[in-house]
Amino acid sequence: MTSAPLSAPRVPDSGTLHTCHPGDMEWLPWAMPGAYFKLLHADAASGRFTLMIKFEPGAQAPIHRHIGAVEGYMLEGGFHYRDDPEHPFNAGTYLWESDGAVHQPVSPNGAMMFAIFHGPVEGLDEGGNLTGRVGWKWHVDKWNAAGNNYVPTNLDATAPSESR
Questions:
Q1: By the 8 A CB rule, do 120 and 163 touch?
Q2: Which letter does DSSP use for residue 73 in this model?
Q3: In the 8-state DSSP scheme, what is residue 108?
Q4: What is the DSSP letter of 11?
Q5: Which residues of 5-41 are buried (b: 16+ CB within 10 A; e: fewer)?
Q6: Quick check: helix, strand or coil at residue 78?
């Protein structure tokens, strides 16, 4: 059996590879008290965005609904849902929150996570009424208002209205 010779790895062209160094980035206040984010990536066409999120001890998210699914990996600490404190998501846990999920995370001791949002998140009041929405554009605008110069991928493509 003859195997094909191995070739040297190709360096991707600058249009297909996007990198950043989260350790060198500043934390910015997020959409909820006691939480901070670093914007790693945003795609204007799909509405997806990727964040590092840090929660202070005692942080409690408002009740919210996911318009797109969210994937998360807990790096430090943990959280649980307000109505299910017996099932925490601690460091080393991967989680998938389906689109349409409605919940209220609580982080008693603080946490840090890597999260991929497949669409925006809507804040809700106790009656289920919409109080706000954060998506890729909200994060890019907030990130750039802090002096960064981030340009999302596919900005020239038509973005779905629900992703803003």
A1: yes
A2: E
A3: T
A4: P
A5: eeeeeeeeeeeeeeeeeeeeeeeeebbbebbbbbbbb
A6: strand
Contact 162, 47 (CB under 8 A): yes
> Could you tell me the sign of the dihedral formed by the alpha carbons of 103, 49, 151, 137, in that order?
negative
Length of the chain: 164
CATH number (2.60.120.10, 3.40.190.10, 3.40.1190.20, 3.30.420.10) of 32-147 reads 2.60.120.10
pLDDT tens digits for range 130-163: 999 999 999 999 999 999 999 999 988 755 554 4
Q: Where are the domains positioned within the chain? A: 32-147
Task: Tokens 């249009």: give the residue.
Answer: 15
Tokens found for residue 105: 């995370």
List of residues 6+ apart from 144 with CB closer than 8 A? 150
Percentage with pLDDT > 90 across the chain = 82
Q: How many CB atoms lie within 10 A of CB 140?
A: 19
For the CA atoms of the chain, what is the radius of gyration? 18
Q: Which of 10-24, 79-93, 138-152 has the lowest mean pLDDT?
A: 10-24
In this structure, what token pair is assigned to residue 68? 């797109």
100: which DSSP letter? Answer: T
Continuous H helices in the chain: 136-145
